[in-house]
Amino acid sequence: MFLEQGIKTENKFWKYLLGSFFIIIASFVGQIPFSVAVLYKNFTDNVAFPTDNDAVMKIFEPNLTLFLVMISFVFALAGVYFVVKHLHEQTFLSITTSRKKIDWRRVVFSFLLWAFFSVASFFILYQESPENFVWNFKLVPFLILVVLGSVLIPIQTSTEEYVFRGYLMQGFANLAKNRWFPLVMTSVIFGSMHIFNPEVAKMGYVIMIYYIGTGFFLGILTLMDEGIELSLGFHAANNLVGALLVTSDWTVFQTHSIFIDMSEPSAGLDVILPIVVVYPILLVIFAKKYKWTNWKEKLTGNIEVAESSNL
């Protein structure tokens, strides 16, 4: 079973605190190239030093910004691998899945399913309000975005899944010896990590319902399927399709996407609809395909261990 793979008497919770600190440091090290590039740009072009995150994200050409930002996730993912292997003495597979090897068919199915939902949803919105979208397609920058995005965005999303649905979910399971606590904690922390996104400033804190709700959805996928393959595919499709298809001046990334969304953002149905309608539909699809049963036990049950000495 997935959570049980991380529960060992010597795998005490303080190790997860130490490991998380190491991963954060690795991420900060990965941000050094971006910081150096900003300082160099400021020095050579004699431009004002950016004073907020929005200004920092717009100082370079979008494809270069994407590349520089994503470097930190490469370092963070390496940090996850290091602490799992050397601090916890586990295999990387053990925080990926309970199966004997990664089920790539699950990753691909989840990716394609959510990519289809995302593209279909966008074109429904486009048909209803075409005046809200501006054609932004430029062949060469877009092709560069496709290459960079196809490599780097899955690294970014996989890093987040390995940290939250893999590493920390097993860590909180070590602490609580049940399933509901890891689900709640990783979902709340995952959602809270987005609190400084420009979308929050534009729409208000109500959008945190979407971020935390998405964390719960991905956590449910992990617990019911006994692995993070489905969440890996979903998260990669969500971010990659978004980056390629449509951007706006109030999102985290401004990319050379096909369309620009010119509408004024509002926290309405686009926040609530995924949580109360779309995600439940997806859960039904996954449950039917993978024959999930015993929902209450898998999501809220206790974890039986021979000895619990984690403090």
Automatic annotation (TrEMBL):
Gene Ontology molecular function: endopeptidase activity
GO process terms (BP): CAAX-box protein maturation
Name of this chain's protein: Abortive phage infection protein
Coiled coil: none
Stored InterPro entries: Rce1/LyrA-like_dom
UniProt lineage: Bacteria, Pseudomonadati, Bacteroidota, Flavobacteriia, Flavobacteriales
Record-annotated membrane-spanning stretches: 16-40, 64-84, 104-127, 139-159, 180-197, 203-223, 230-247, 267-287
Residue ranges annotated for the CAAX prenyl protease 2/Lysostaphin resistance protein A-like domain, each copy included: 142-241
Native species: Flavobacterium hercynium
Keyword line: Membrane, Transmembrane, Transmembrane helix
Domain of life: Bacteria
